[in-house]
Amino acid sequence: MHWRIKGLIQKALGPLPGGEALHYRLQRRFGGLQNFHRELSVKVEDWQIMVRHLRDAGVAISSSHFFEIGTGWYPTFPFALYLAGARRITTYDLIRHLQDDLVRAAVKELGGFLKVIAEDSGSDLAEVQARYGMLATAVDAGADLSEATGGRILYSAPADATATALADGEVDVVFSNSVLEHVPPEAITAMYRESMRILSPGGIMFHSVNCGDHYSYVDSKIHQLNYLRYSDRAWKLWNNAFLYQNRMRAHEFVEGAAALGFKIELDTSTARANRLEQLAAMKVDSRFAQVPPERLCITSVDFIARNPA
């Protein structure tokens, strides 16, 4: 599909009554949710990456309270953390996207990843299997996330991650996966401030950001730097309720956290040769012209920012 066609379809659906439900059905039939096994497998791989980084940072999953920004259609990360033995997982979504059929499908698919979850989290496999058995039975019986997990997963939507109901210092880890690139810059700053408030002394933020043009996933004729061609005014046409992209570069996410007093302990941003070549072959908008190519071309970053208090 040409990326502009997808953009116009999503733009048209946004203001329609029932547009959210129709968009979901289109994703299930024609979009990324067609192959749910592959979709969830990618999410599990992302979770594995996060957990390995957290273990390297000294996070003990079993004693930690996690706060997720952006639950989405199905709660892969909260479920995997629950299975790994996390003390509590609070997950917020600004809009309620959670879909009951995908929640059940996610639980079913996770049954094939129990060994992976145990190994990467350092948990006992028998305990992971026991938790999974209780989770699967409860979800099949129609229990909500809190009921199915004995109160360990707390889901709130609509809920604002810039002004949470959590107490000062209540959380050990704040995290997101492929969310911050879809958030207005001023809201990201507010999220960072709120994260500093709710994090315990020494607590950390882990964010994995996919800061490339997401339209490239549906149109093979463009690459992940394509959206840098456009002015803010021109790009406003293609931003929509279902695929808002702030076009922030990787260093801005990391430096924004550092500017608020976080200590940066991990920054995986890397300038890749193919991205530098793609950038050299295109004309970028004046908004991005002053950014060094080795920064501008980066399309993903994982980073850990610690509350130094």
UniProtKB/TrEMBL annotation:
Record has Transferase as a keyword: yes
The family database entries (InterPro entries) matched by this protein are listed as: Methyltransf_11, SAM-dependent_MTases_sf
Alphabetized Pfam families for the sequence:
Methyltransf_11
Q: Name one GO biological process term.
A: methylation
MF terms from GO for this chain are:
methyltransferase activity
Hydrolase among the record's keywords? no
What are the protein's UniProt keywords? Methyltransferase, Transferase
Q: Which domain of life is it from?
A: Bacteria
Protein name (database record): SAM-dependent methyltransferase
Task: Give the source species.
Answer: Pseudoxanthomonas sacheonensis
- Give the classification, highest ranks: Bacteria, Pseudomonadati, Pseudomonadota, Gammaproteobacteria, Lysobacterales
